[in-house]
Structure formats: structure tokens, C-alpha cells
Amino acid sequence: MPSTVLTPTGSAESMVLNMGPQHPSTHGVLRVVLELNGETVVKARPDIGYLHTGIEKTCEAKTYTQAITLTDRLDYLAPLSNNLCYCLAVEKLLGLQAPKRAQYVRVLLTELTRIASHLVWLGTHAIDLGAMSVFLYCFREREEIMKIFEMVSGQRMMTSYFRIGGLALEPPTGWLDRVARFVEIFPERINEYEDLLTENRIWQGRTKGVGYLSPEDAVAWGVSGPPLRAAGIAYDVRKFFPYSSYEEFEFDVPVRTESDCYARYLLRVAEMRESLKIVKQAMAKVPAEGPIRAEAPGIVPPQREKMKTEMEALIYHFKIFPEGFSPPPGEVYQRIESPRGELGFYVASDGSPKPYRVKVRAPSFANLQALPLLCEGRVMADTVACIGTLDIVLGEIDR
Amino acid sequence: MADSEAITAHPVVARLNAWDAPAIAQAEIFRGELTITVTRENLRRVCDFLRSDAELQFTFLSDLTGVDRFPVEPRFEINYHLLSMSRREGLRVKARASGHDPVLQSVTAVWPTANWHEREVFDLFGVRFEGHPDLRRILLPAEWEGHPLRKDFPTEGYR
Lengths: 399, 159
Description:
Chain A is built from 18 helices and eight strands. By secondary structure, chain A is α+β, with helices and mostly antiparallel strands. Chain A is globular, with a radius of gyration of 22 Å.
């Protein structure tokens, strides 16, 4: 009887209200048990697990390469970030590095992912607070990014495009022109969203001063990503622990100190502009030709052409696909900056072709835990703003 | 030999050894990541020190996770992935719990974020945390039987 455990004994003044698991503003299947005094939230208890599919357990039954497809389904708004983090973790375990060309493509695509994810966040956050039209504008541009993903990987969402040691496929001819087109139109589009919201009195009224989180609390509760940086702490994994050649890119990490929903809104909009800067640099850096996979016989599948002409390549092909490869025993923890914060993959190997343990440190998991700090003591309508501002994805919380 | 010298020379290890060497059972570096294994009794003390020491300041607990090494005893490894923003450094603290009595000290008082992470480990591995304010299942339903991430729990579940 979970509800009796979760439900505080209501006194005469307070009532208990279940927000979710089917509530449009909970972004998936989140249940928040609210104890209300009139319209004021006295207590908020997030209840998770409705989307638990046992992805970590399933990973243990798959080979390292097969597990990539499961990572797409964690944070379904940023599948490429998950692919990247998992691949980097396994590459670290193997002591392998993807070639430069693959690294730049990875940076380019994950930054586009960040923009796409922030667009979904902005659209849904605005719709939660009653600004309907922003949603339509945001999804218009997101569609362009989805088309780029589809062009490159064949999939809009479940990309699985990054593989251990590099990329799955050679990027198609003309894909950079498509990215260039997007880069050209997008700055003006960001201005459009800002025109609709930034100076909007209703928007400011709904977000300014709402959902304050002190910097001390943010660190203590393991909050990362935009909510942490909006509290004045400039922790960005791309700067602290550069991966995939991020140290070669010039970009700023937006930081604000007001730490309310409005600050987090401004911060994410600024992040989109920074991501665009990185995309532009990456476009200039990506060489037109060159290897997209590391040279690692027995781990990275051989080129199709070699497979048809060289005996050794053929043998490796038939060894890699049915059996997989075996990293040395050991354990690694790889962190990257996903659109939501610090995404971490802990991968332990026992020397067999299947991961012994895969653990996903989901940024939303830690961020959601801080929800009561944001919304307790405020009116119930602000809870909707607080859930939206944390930008949670239940897929990665419940795994 | 050279390896162990490199480890003891590591500033974090040196600082811990200067503070209380017997509390640290083992220190190793794999792929550039430092892992410190602590004894069960000292877990809470070491965590307190790591967080509050002015030189180390591991104030951010990124992750807390379990690994089941069944049938090896003690079978459960609990890993704490820490981050020091001032040092720009990560650290893994490892503690072990046996299958007969899977109990560890809770670190919720050190890092409040450990609350949900410990509940998750309790839920999926059945490791209990002493001093946790609200230890109950988090992902699975309360009436669920067993702990799915244990290695003796079949991937398909019990039917």
C-alpha cells in the first residue's frame, strides 16, 4: 500500500492531492503528492518509477555494442548525448580514442541535440504556463534538427549513431549544407522566442522569483546543469573535464545568480546561442574526408571494402558481430554535459563481452529530488512552473 | 613498485593518509581514475572528511551505485562518485557489504542528494543504509519481491 506510506495524515486545514501520474505538466509519468493548505503547497513528495523498464539490468545481458540502442531510450529528448557518454565510457575502458573527424562530428551533433532538447523544454514549459504559440515556433525549428539527424543516422530520435570507436556511418554528402542552413536561420528564430517571452509581463509574473534554489542547496542536492548554473555556480563538464575535443572550441558558459525560473529560462536561451557558436566552429573543423572509426582490430568493425578483400578483416567481422569484444576487467565513470546536466555512465567490466554493470547517473534524477525545495511554501500553480523549469525526462529518471 | 609510489604521491591519497591512514584499505588508479576503498566502519567518517576538508572539498556527490560481485564475498560494492569543484577532480570511494548482512552507514547527512540514490540501491540490490531517514523502495512497487540488480535475479524475472 504505497499510498498510505506516502500520504501524510491530513489535518483539518490541509488536503492531499495527487498531481499525476497522468497530468500534462508532469512531462511523462511523474506523480507528485502535494499536501495543500488552501492553495499553498505545504509538502511536495515526488514519486517516481512508473517508467522503470530495467534498462541497466538489460544492459548486462547485451554485448557492449548492443547496449548502445538502450541508451537512446533513457533521455529520449537527447539520445545522442546518451550515445556519446556511453561510447566514451566504453572507449575509456578499452583505452581507445575516436579519430578527430569523428570527435568533431560528435561535438556538432550533440550540440544540435542540446538545442533540440532546449527547444522542447522551452515549448512545453511555455505551454504549461499558458503561452501556447511558443510551442509551435519551437517545434518548427526542432523539426529542422530532426531532419538533420534523420539524414545522418536514418532516425529522427533513436539515433544510435555513435558507436564504440567512432561513428556508425559515413555522414552523407551535403549534410553540412543542411546544418549551415539551420545555423543561418536559427539566431533570428531565437529572437522570435525572446520577443514572445522575455519582456512578456505574464511570463515574467509566472517565472520571476518563482522556484528559488540557493547555491548551497543546489550543490548539496547534487543539482547540475542549467539549474546549478542559474544559482551562480559555473560547473559545466565541457569546461571542467573536456571530452571529445571540447577543449579546442571557444564558447562561454552562461551563469546567472537569481536562481529562479526566469533566470533558468534566460540561461537556457543563452545556452542555445552558445551551442550555435560551437556548431559553427565544428562545421569549419570537420574534415571532408578521413576515418570515422578508430583503427582497433577486433573491437571496431572493419570497413566493408576490406572485409571483401582481406581475410583478416573477414575473420574480425565474424568475431565482432556474434560474440562482441572483451575490455579488460576494471571500472570507469565517464561524465559529460547533457542538456540537463551532468550525465554519467559507470561501466564495470569483468573481462567478458558483456558489461558486468552499467549505471546511468541521470541528471534529471538528482534535479527532481530538489523539487520540494523549489515549490514548498508557494501556491500550487507555481509547482507547474517548478517542474517545467527543472527540465526533467522521466525516461532517464526511471530507467 | 613505481605504480604504488605514484598512487601514494597522489595529493588526495597523501592528504587522506596524513589524516588517518588505517581508514583507507586500498587506493588504485585505473584509466586515470582514482579509487579509494574504505572499510565499512570508517565510511561515514571518511566521507565527512572528504567533504569538509578545506584542501579536498568533495562537496558534490555525483552518483552512488552498487555492483553485485556474487558469489564473491563480500558481494556488494557500493561506489560513491565524488566531485571537487575547487580541485576540478573526481574520486571514487568504494565500500563493501556482505551478502549475509548487507548494511552500510548512510551518507545522507553528508550529502542530502544521497537520499534517493541510497533508496535506489536498497530497492535494486537490497543493501540497507543505517541512518537513512526514509529507506523504502523508489523505482519498484512496494510489494515487489526480490532485488532485480542482484546477479542471482534472472533477467526475465521470476515467473
